[in-house]
Design goal:
By secondary structure, this protein is an alpha/beta fold. It is built from 8 helices and 10 strands. The chain is globular, with a radius of gyration of 17 Å. The two termini are about 30 Å apart.
Length: about 210
């Protein structure tokens, strides 16, 4: 029997799926991270190429470890050491079949809000990979775009900066100060309100708190 909170999360997921559909996204709800992992892997086809953006959510559901142990063609940024290898990596990702990522925030009306440093993650969301699969816990849901941006800047970026050992003001003060530091993680703000290619972006909402 589901608890009241689990039922609430499922109802929220159903509401978001309807909003995603209006925006050309494919929406799915999974109650647990284990279900989310199985759902994510079901998208993949034999012989396909796969990559992903940096994400604690993907780590927490076990997706990255599963992909690295699979027979799919994997493009893993951590293996690129030289500038030439990194350039080759980004060109490969742009043409890959499936790209996995999380969202920094998702609004109640179904918009995806992401803030990036280098921009490679949001670039892949916008254009390139044939399919983009976004996996996000219910903790990423925010009322609207303004609340979503506030969530990223003040509740996601600071602990993430601490985790990465970055010498940034948000790591020190625990809040965004709109810094212009060389290592700033908040250089690109992307709001994805619609998928021009229907179904290219697939969003799995998970009824657990995941990532930052």
């Amino acid at each position: 029997m589901s608890t009241a909170k689990q039922q609430y999360y499922e109802n929220l997921g159903d509401t978001l799926i309807d909003k995603f559909n209006l925006r050309g996204f494919e929406g799915y709800y999974c109650e647990t991270k284990e279900e989310a992992l199985r759902a994510a892997m079901r998208f993949l086809t034999p012989g396909c190429s796969v990559s992903w953006g940096g994400s604690m959510t993907l780590e927490e559901i076990g997706l990255i470890a599963t992909l690295k142990d699979s027979d799919y063609t994997i493009y893993d940024r951590s293996t690129a050491k030289t500038p030439e290898e990194k350039e080759k990596f980004f060109s490969e990702v742009a043409a890959c079949d499936y790209y996995f990522m999380s969202a920094n925030a998702i609004t109640l009306d179904g918009q995806l809000v992401n803030i990036d440093g280098l921009g490679n993650r949001v670039a892949s969301l916008i254009h390139g990979p044939k399919n983009v699969v976004v996996i996000a816990g219910v903790n990423k849901v925010a009322k609207d775009v303004d609340a979503a941006i506030d969530r990223v800047q003040n509740f996601a970026a600071p602990p993430n900066a601490v985790r990465l050992g970055l010498d940034l003001p948000c790591a020190k003060y625990g809040r965004c100060v709109e810094c212009l530091d060389a290592g700033c993680m908040c250089c690109q703000t992307v709001i994805t309100r619609k998928s021009r290619i229907r179904g290219r972006i697939k969003v799995i909402i998970v009824g657990e708190e995941l990532g930052y």
